[in-house]
Amino acid sequence: MPKLTIAQNILAANDTYAAGIRQLLAPRGIRSINFMSSPGAGKTTLLERTIRRLRVKLQIGVIEGDIETSADAERIEAAGASETCQINTRGNCHLEAHMVQAALDQFDLDRVQLLIIENIGNLICPNAWDLGEDLRVVITSTTEGDEKPAKYPQMFADAQVVVINKLDLLPYVDYDLEKVRRQVLALNPHLRIFELSCRTEEGLDGWCEWLENFARGEI
Amino acid sequence: MHELSIAQSIVEVVEATAVENRASQVNSVRLLIGDGSGVAIEPLIFSFEMIASMEPLLSGAKLLIERVPHRARCRKCATEFIIPDFVVICPACQVWDCEVISGTELQVLEMEFDAESEEEEQLCQN
Asked: CA B125, CA A195: separation in Å to the nearest integer?
């Protein structure tokens, strides 16, 4: 029976799209972020608050990934994103690079300085797909329990930034912030951690300042 | 359940190669899967068999999987070690400055197939 060597990366087709996205964004000076978290950690709310604060200084384009509905893209547009596109994956548990490329085809890239891709709420699957991003941000929150980094290590190990949201709820939940910091840094000591509350806006100044510097290429 | 998408990608890679090489039936596909790739083997096999059963060229094809340990090398003392649960700390000198050297592979290595017979080929041409 004939045998044939293939020796090809299973996700090669995705990686080709991701490389194409980098080639599209880099010459324009557009930096990009892949936002990931479990469902309900506050990705969209963080985006809303961030865009409201930065919209006068920075043109932010957002690709919203959801299984169904365009509710999030509408929220983000109302907050003042310069360009938005909703991707509905109809059941698929993660975004893939070809979906991001299709969304970017609809963007006027002259109106985008920072691109944020909000992935499907899921701490496992999105990790395997490179979307052509410069940076991975994982959002976790005090209502999810304080063992998320230990239980989903790969997602945290491969990120560069972790945001701990819903700090205002700390008095009401059994959440050991120091334990989470330790778990996160044990997986990746170079990770940058932001602790904030989208509701009270505590900690948002530092996050927005950092994000603006990142978008301008200063980080 | 991203194994379904991974399985779909495997089927696409194998099918393209099979058509290019005039295979009439693919019997097995050998993969290299790293322990740090985040892919669960059982759902991957289940998904592959399900998708393959719908493709005449791949129907009944077996998935053979070679695992690759998730390993790192310390940049300070050069100790090589297996990474436990994604915590990449050197067990000898406790430093974090380690390079992952294997275990993230997601590769289609090879396939075994039946070639189209010349008779069939002639039939196709006619």
From this structure: 68
Range of the domain at A116: 12-210
Q: What is the per-residue pLDDT across A153-211, written as a single tens digit (0 to 9) for each?
A: 999 999 999 999 999 999 999 999 999 999 999 888 899 999 999 999 999 999 999 99
The helix/strand/coil state of A87 is strand
Cα B27 from chain centre: 15
pLDDT of residue B124: 52
Q: Which domains does chain B have, with CATH numbers?
A: 3-70+102-125 (3.30.2320.50)
Residue A142 belongs to a domain: yes
**Looking at the domain assignment, is residue A59 inside a domain?**
yes
Q: What is the value of ipTM here, to two decimals?
A: 0.81
Nearest Cα residue in chain B from A150: B85
Quote the CA–CA distance of B125 and A45 in Å, as a whole number: 61
Q: Which amino acid would we find at residue A125?
A: C
Q: What is the pLDDT of residue B123?
A: 55
Q: In sequence order, what are the residues at sequence separation of 6 or more whose Cβ sits closer than 8 angstroms to the Cβ of residue A40?
A: A121, A141, A143, A144
Residue A203: which CATH number?
3.40.50.300
Residue of A nearest to B4 (CA): A92
CB proximity under 8 Å: B 48-107 to A? 85-89, 96, 106-107
Residue A106 has pLDDT above 90, yes or no: yes
CA distance A122 to A66: 11
